Amino acid sequence: MTDLAKDAKPVAAATPPGATVRASTAAADVQTIPVWQNISNVLGRRLIELLVLLVFVSSTLFFLLRFTGDPAAVLAGETGDQEQLELIRKQYGLDKPLPVQYGIFLIKMVQLDFGKSFANAQDALGLVFERLPTSFTLVLIAFTANLCTSIPMGAWLGSRPDKTGRKLASTFVFVAQGIPGYITGLLLIQLFAVELRWLPSIGNQGPQSWIMPAITLASFQAPQVIRVISANVAEAMREDYIRTARANGAGFSTLLWRHALKNAMLGATALIGAQVSFLLGGSVITEVIFAWPGLGRLLVTSVQTLDFPVVQAAVFMIAVFVYLAIMITDFVFLLIDPRLRRQRA
């Protein structure tokens, strides 16, 4: 070996020019912005989307209702003559051309004025607000019952992938997912109201009246939530960090509730947030089954009687609450997942 070879120093020829600079600045290209800034950005965007959604939904419903029938014929009854029909149409502005009616409707909708109910001449939005607390409380109870049941059961099923009990429970959940909610409600009425006479089945007669409607409503989406959480927990239990924690002596409860379930909830949060919209839709059927004095029953009655103002006001408020639930879900994502708060500088 020559002296030149001995004095030669190794050269990192495989390192392309500029790679060191890029590696050192890679972390600087991505930064985590504050939570409040993310929330303000999402809030501004969502409010604009909400306004567009409300205009679209209300406009579509406006034209659909106009092709479902003539409210004047419903109000006049079978004995109403043509002159009476014309007077009723003029009273409620139904005699004007459709574009004029639509323009008036948009102007009043911006002012949150949906007009008077055709049935009883009361303020349509006022009727909705009277029924809203009852329906909202029922949905909230069903939502809470859904989570309190679905999350523990899904975690238990996902943590025991090879157990016989888990397979039987999974089969039951799969079958329950295909049972319509109204069937559950009718079965509950037959068992607890007709056979056992434990619970009232019609209307709001006290705290006991809430039990069967809440169970019926919660059963709409509980099986789906259980399956999603179960699959996410089963996948999380196979991750390397779980094996490492187990090797370090962590107990089963710690692995499941503090680690696996926490990460599994990231994937289930979107589905859980969407439960509000499904529950609001399911509440319509539930309220009809149990003659519940809520918004869903008011909506069904108003559709049957072609009470346009009440239908418009009810759908408007339902759309608002559904979109608020989506916004809250977005905020929860920002709080629990730091990856969503990272952006390139």
What does this structure look like?
- It contains 15 helices and two strands.
- It is 72% helix and 2% strand.
- Strands 1-2 form a two-stranded antiparallel sheet.
- It is mostly helical.
- Helix 7 (124-158) packs across helix 10 (211-218), helix 8 (164-177) runs antiparallel to helix 11 and helix 10 packs across helix 13.
- The protein has a domain at 123-344: MetI-like fold.
- It has helices spanning 3-7, 19-29, 35-66, 71-76, 82-91, 98-110, 124-158, 164-177, 181-195, 211-218, 222-236, 240-247, 252-289, 295-304, 308-336; strands at residues 30-32, 342-344.
Task: Report a brief summary of the structure.
With 345 residues, this protein is mostly helical. 72% of the residues lie in helices and 2% in strands. The protein contains 15 helices and two strands.
Helix and strand sequence: HHEHHHHHHHHHHHHHE
CATH class category of the domain at 123-344: Mainly Alpha
Report the CATH architecture of the domain at 123-344.
Orthogonal Bundle
Average pLDDT reading: 79
Core attributes:
two-stranded antiparallel sheet; 15 helices; MetI-like fold; disordered N terminus; 345 residues; mainly alpha
Topology:
Blueprint (H helix, E strand, L loop, with lengths): L2 H5 L11 H11 E3 L2 H32 L4 H6 L5 H10 L6 H13 L13 H35 L5 H14 L3 H15 L15 H8 L3 H15 L3 H8 L4 H38 L5 H10 L3 H29 L5 E3 L1
Antiparallel strand pairs: 1-2
